[in-house]
Amino acid sequence: MDTETLLIHAGRQTAIAANAVSPPLVRTSTTVFASYDAYKQAQGGLVFDGPRYGRSGTSTTFELQRAMAQIAHTETCIATSSGLAAITAVLAAHAGPGRHLLVGAGVYGPTRVFCDNVLIPSGTDVEYFAHDTDIAPLLRESTSLVFVETPASLTMEMWDVPAISAAAHDRGVPVACDATWGTPVFFDAHALGIDISIHAATKFINGHSDLLLGLITGTLDALAGVRAYCDRSGTHAAPDTCWLTLRGLRTLAVRMEHHQRSALTVAQWLTSQPGVQRVLFPALDTDPGYKLWQTQFSGAAGPFTVELAPCSEAAFTGFIDSLSLFGLGTSWGGFESLVMPAVPHHLRALAAPTDAPRLVRFHIGLESPHDLCDDLATALTCLTSAHDTAGTP
Ligand SMILES: Cc1ncc(COP(=O)(O)O)c(C=O)c1O
């Protein structure tokens, strides 16, 4: 079945059993069993798709996990308390003294913060690599995972996922990918060779900016270590957030189409505006990542980043504060448009503050793109007005 159909029909077993359209929300910390035999059966192994105790989930959790596994064209899914919890569970499950992790340099900032502050001090060798690197020479006997995020957070570089996967698999190394940007609607991660796909469902999958949730997908084999880690560390999601995410999932495909149309309209319009130096969005045919995006993705919902022309701090403040339809906030993937000054983690150490490009990340919500462009046009006048002494920090 096509993804649009699966989004509607997957994850509804318990709904059908209850003669309902929507699965019941089952909140419980404690599972009780009808017999000692049933109890003994539930205790064996690492269970994430049958009730055992609240941490492993309730029927609501299992509905979401089954739906997500189906939509991602794989066997299984683990729900975690946030997108970052999903990332750290995957990394921690493959880390340890003497182990080597290859991590894409442009990953989400807190992913690097976890590597630098938790994994490296406890003995894991973490090596960052740039998006255009041939990873074959970097792989070692001790390499236990390659981790990428495509496109890169904030700087939006594309990664050649099939080439990275082929090189890693040649050496028996699994590949994990933070696939939050594409979602399974636009990015068929497992078909491209990804073993472990990670989604901050907080963003597009839930889509309503009212919860935090992570989802990890892959085969039973690929996720065995991650399941064990989650089971032992108590990384789990609440049934309420799973229920809301299932509700968001039903409309994911239509929302993604709308986000894509509007993001392209706004991004294209921005490319010709005074005060805008560059738009970093792989769905634009002028972007260096366009070819890779075309071959790996079936769509692009945004968000995207804009490099502004050099401007004074006052002009920049005026620009941000003049926006009325774009909320100033550090998220994306919801129904509402957002703006955020972007300081990519991997560029922080490299550039002196005055040399750093003035980057702004936009998330284009479900408003009319024409209203959004009008809002941006007004704000951009702050950058181009005669009062600004361009280039003065
Ligand atoms: C690419 C990416 N991955 C993961 C996360 C983390 O998700 P959460 O906020 O649910 O922890 C974010 C959050 O902004 C993100 O942008």
- Straight-line N-to-C gap: 55 Å
Oligomer: single chain
Largest sheet: 7 strands, mixed
The class by helix and strand makeup works out as alpha/beta
Order of helices and strands: HHHHEHEHEEHEHEEHHHEHEHEEHEH
Radius of gyration: 22 Å
- Specify the CATH homologous superfamily of the largest domain: Type I PLP-dependent aspartate aminotransferase-like (Major domain)
CATH third-tier fold name of the largest domain: Aspartate Aminotransferase, domain 2
Q: What is the CATH first-level class name of the largest domain?
A: Alpha Beta
Mean pLDDT metric: 93
Strand content: 15-25%
Rough outline: globular
Q: Mind telling me which CATH architecture of the largest domain this is?
A: 3-Layer(aba) Sandwich
Helix fraction bin: 25-40%
Total count of helical runs of at least 4 residues: 15
Low-pLDDT windows of residues = 389-393
Strand order of the largest sheet: 1-7-6-5-4-2-3
Number of strands: 12
Q: What features would you describe in this structure?
A:
- The structure is a single chain.
- The chain has 393 residues and is α/β, with parallel strands linked by helices.
- The protein folds into 2 domains: 3-249, Type I PLP-dependent aspartate aminotransferase-like (Major domain) (Aspartate Aminotransferase, domain 2); 252-384, Alpha-Beta Complex (Aspartate Aminotransferase, domain 1), CATH 3.90.1150.10.
- 38% of the residues lie in helices and 15% in strands.
- It is built from 15 helices and 12 strands.
- The chain has helices at residues 3-9, 13-17, 36-43, 59-71, 83-94, 109-119, 161-170, 183-186, 224-233, 239-249, 252-271, 290-296, 313-322, 345-348, 369-384, and strands at residues 76-80, 100-104, 125-129, 143-149, 175-178, 196-200, 214-218, 276-280, 304-308, 327-328, 338-342, 358-363.
- The strands form 2 sheets. A 7-stranded mixed sheet has the order 1-7-6-5-4-2-3, with helices on both faces.
- Helix 5 packs parallel to helix 6 (109-119).
- The longest helix has 20 residues, at 252-271.
- Residues 389-393 have low confidence and may be disordered.
- The structure holds pyridoxal-5'-phosphate (PLP).
